[in-house]
Amino acid sequence: MSKLTHQEKPEWFTGEWYTKGDTVTSLHSGEKVKLTGPELSIYDLIIGSRMYLQSIFDGDDPIAHEFKSVIKKGLDWFKKANPTAYKTLFDNI
Q1: Using an 8 Å Cβ cutoff, are 81 and 39 in contact?
Q2: Are 54 and 64 in contact (CB under 8 A)?
Q3: Is 39 exposed, middle or buried (0-12, 13-18, 19+ CB in 10 A)?
Q4: How far is 61 from 1, CA to CA, in rounded Å?
Q5: Is there a contact between 39 and 88 (Cβ–Cβ < 8 Å)?
Q6: What pTM value is reported for the model?
Q7: Helix, strand, or coil (residue 14)
Q8: Is the torsion defined by CA of 91, 26, 50, 14 positive or negative?
Q9: Reduced to 3 states, what is the DSSP secondary structure of residue 23?
Q10: Are strands 22-25 and 32-35 parallel, antiparallel or unpaired?
Q11: Which residues are bridge partners to 26 per DSSP?
Q12: Full DSSP string of 53-77
């Protein structure tokens, strides 16, 4: 999988699309990773969606299925955009 030269906003993404990146810390290893603005946008979407799913009681709720789908799309995008950061941040999910 090669790193994308242009990290364009996916059609399915409806959140805020950051132009400025930042450093995030892996929730599992504590390792820090520098992300681009688009990577940070997808990261926030994945983490926020996971937090929402953990807070609901009924995993069969139709909204839960939507969030699961968004998480999968985000993880797939991240694998292609930055495989190294993906491995550090999400390999343990």
Answers
A1: yes
A2: no
A3: buried
A4: 34
A5: no
A6: 0.85
A7: coil
A8: negative
A9: strand
A10: antiparallel
A11: none
A12: HHH-S-TTSHHHHHHHHHHHHHHHH
